C-alpha cells in the first residue's frame, strides 16, 4: 500500500492536500520512526503547505507533535502557519493563543526569542507571554491581510478544484486567469508556480493555461 501512495504523490497527483493527508496518516499510524514520519510531513508541506486549503495537513502535523508533547516543535509549526495565507488562519491564531497560555513557555520559544526578551529586560512569565503574543500578532495581521486579498479568488476556485470531463464555466476560467495575474504581480516565484500547478489540475485541457505557464517560466 505504501508503494501505491508513493507513486501517487510522486507521479500521479503530487499537488493534492487530501492525498498527502492520507499518506502521512497511513505512515504515522504504522511507523515507530518519528523522524521518518516528520520527513514525510515535510515533503508534503513543501509541495502543498502554502495552498489556501492546506489546513488538514497542517492539522495532522500539529496533532502528531502534540501527541508526543513536543511543545517546541508544535510552537515552531504554529509560527510557520502564521506566515501562510490559509483559509483558516484566524482559527489558527486563536488556537495559538490557547496553546501559548497552556504550555510551559520555556519549552516552546526559540533561543533567539529568549535572548531578545532578556535584552529587553522582559522578566516575568506573564510579561514574556505578552511579548510573544504581541510579536506574533503582528505576523498574524499581516498574513490575514494577504489571506483576504486571495479570499474572493479562492471562493471561486474551490467550487471546482479537481479535474472533471465537463468544461469549466467562463467565470471560473476568468477567475483562474485573474488569480494567476494577481500572484504574478506579487512577485513570489514559489507561490506563482504552486498556483499554476493547482490551476493545471482542473484546467489541464485548456491550452491557454499551459502556454501562460510556459511564458511565465521563460520570463524568469
UniProtKB/TrEMBL annotation:
Tell me, which GO biological process terms does this entry list? mRNA 5'-splice site recognition
Key word Methyltransferase present: no
Q: Which Gene3D superfamilies match?
A: Tetratricopeptide repeat domain
- List the GO molecular function terms: pre-mRNA 5'-splice site binding
- Identify the InterPro entries for this entry: HAT, HAT_PRP39_C, TPR-like_helical_dom_sf
A GO cellular component annotation here is: U1 snRNP
Keywords in alphabetical order: mRNA processing, mRNA splicing, Nucleus, Repeat
Chain coiled-coil ranges = none
Q: Provide the protein's localization.
A: Nucleus
Task: Give the record's family classification.
Answer: Belongs to the PRP39 family.
Specify the protein name. Answer: Suppressor of forked domain-containing protein
List the source organism: Arcella intermedia
